[in-house]
Amino acid sequence: MNEKKIKLCATNEVQEFVKAASDCNFDINMHYERAIVDAKSFLGVLSLGLAKIVTVKYGGSNHTFESVLQKYVVA
């Protein structure tokens, strides 16, 4: 299971992230405090709120998804 912390600050960033996640054939979840949402759901990701550091957990490999994910990784 891979895990990264990211921050999405605008709806266009959420849209890009969800599109990349939707193209993957493995589960991708986003965690913020106690909430867990499917990263392939635009409304689910928005429900976590913008400009918050969230944890993304995924169990597969997709170069395009990981490239998009890397754009939003925080230290």
TrEMBL record:
<dbReference type="InterPro" id="IPR000032">
    <property type="entry name" value="HPr-like"/>
</dbReference>
<protein>
    <submittedName>
        <fullName>HPr family phosphocarrier protein</fullName>
    </submittedName>
</protein>
<dbReference type="Pfam" id="PF00381">
    <property type="entry name" value="PTS-HPr"/>
</dbReference>
<feature type="domain" description="HPr">
    <location>
        <begin position="15"/>
        <end position="52"/>
    </location>
</feature>
<dbReference type="InterPro" id="IPR035895">
    <property type="entry name" value="HPr-like_sf"/>
</dbReference>
